[in-house]
TrEMBL record:
Main location group: membrane
Keywords assigned by UniProt, alphabetized: Glycoprotein, Membrane, Transmembrane, Transmembrane helix
Subcellular localization, as worded in the UniProt entry: Membrane
Name of the protein in its database record: TIR domain-containing protein
Keyword hit for Transmembrane helix: yes
TIR domain ranges (all copies): 177-319
Organismal lineage: Eukaryota, Metazoa, Echinodermata, Eleutherozoa, Echinozoa
Membrane-spanning residues: 126-147
The keyword Transmembrane is assigned to this record: yes
SMART domains: TIR
Length: 332
């Protein structure tokens, strides 16, 4: 009689006179029960389940079973039964009201009132979580292996941020070189050199007296590019002054490349790039992009008075030390 939409097990609405081993009343939304109807059933087993049964309905069912020949009550998928058992209740012949042999192993033949549903649900919940935890562990392990290199890189950056790193400085100072500062510039930028850079060097770095300002101070008697190479390789620091006009000049780019080649050969960051103005992306030469992408030192000139003070402070700092190239740390 399962799934028959039975709502009332009363003498007026329900009559069952058959003699059978099992009466299946699952999937019926039972709302009221007459204990005498249950007591009159000639069955050995009564099966309930699926639909939620109220406290009053269950009480009347148990009362009727206590007066009948029913030996076994089976409740399937009765999670609501836990709430019912937790409520105060009184059973007639409570010692004979036991869990059937078809119940879970810890409950078999155990008196119903001795069942602790909370403990049982905790155990079942833990058993349910074990396979989920195993699946989660496998998924996490696969993801960790797949992204292992990215994770190592992030951990490396975190270590640098937390612990830092030691800067490797070149042991030589400007007195160990033939020239103190070499300035690579485009001829049209000579005004900025004459009005801004020369006075600043004289004021802030008076010890730098052997300076090369552009082509006019190159070594005489040598081929042009050979002289450029000689001055770059024998200078403590080299300043490359970039402007929109400079990056359009073929000879300027060759001198810039010469300086960059010596950075790679000596593994020393002795080149400082000064941007006199913003250079549009479509005019920026590949060599300058490569320089910036490698995280090399550069400074941007500004017309703001306070900004210029910061500019000269940073330039002075860059001109007084030479750092060794460190390929173990990421580019800034």
């Amino acid at each position: 009689m399962a799934s028959n939409q039975l709502k009332h097990l009363t003498a007026r609405d329900f009559t069952f006179v058959c003699h059978t081993d099992t009466l299946d009343l699952r999937e019926n939304p039972i709302q009221s029960v007459d204990p005498d109807v249950i007591a009159s059933l000639h069955v050995r087993s009564l099966v309930l389940g699926i639909y939620h049964l109220s406290y009053e309905v269950l009480t009347n069912i148990f009362l009727g079973i206590s007066k009948s020949d029913i030996e076994q009550l089976i409740i399937q998928e009765g999670s609501w039964l836990i709430d019912w058992i937790n409520k105060p209740m009184h059973l007639i012949d409570k010692d004979k009201t036991i869990c059937s042999s078809a119940s879970l192993e810890p409950l078999r033949e155990k008196p119903l009132l001795d069942v602790d549903p909370n403990q049982l649900c905790i155990i079942n919940g833990l058993l349910f979580l074990i396979p989920l935890a195993s699946i989660g562990l496998v998924v996490i392990s696969v993801l960790l292996y797949h992204y292992r290199w990215q994770l190592r890189y992030k951990l490396f950056l975190l270590k640098l941020a937390a612990v830092g790193y030691n800067e490797m400085r070149d042991a030589r100072d400007h007195n160990d070189y033939e020239f103190d500062v070499n300035i690579i510039l485009y001829d049209d930028d000579d005004v900025w050199i004459r009005e801004q850079l020369r006075p600043a060097l004289e004021e802030r770095l008076p010890q730098f007296q052997r300076n090369v300002f552009g082509d006019e101070d190159l070594v005489l008697g040598m081929h042009y590019l050979d002289s450029v190479d000689y001055v770059v390789s024998h200078s403590y620091k080299t300043i490359v002054v970039l402007s929109r006009a400079a990056v359009q000049d073929r000879w300027f780019i060759l001198k810039f490349r010469t300086a960059m080649d010596h950075v790679s050969d000596t593994l020393t960051e002795f080149v400082v790039v000064v941007f006199l103005e913003d250079i549009p992306d479509d005019e920026m030469p590949f060599l300058a992009r490569l320089y910036l992408n490698d995280g090399r030192p550069y400074i941007h000139w500004t017309e703001d008075a306070r900004g210029q003070e910061c500019f000269w402070d940073e330039l002075t700092k860059n001109l007084t030390i030479n750092l060794r190239t460190n390929d173990l740390i990421p580019n800034e």
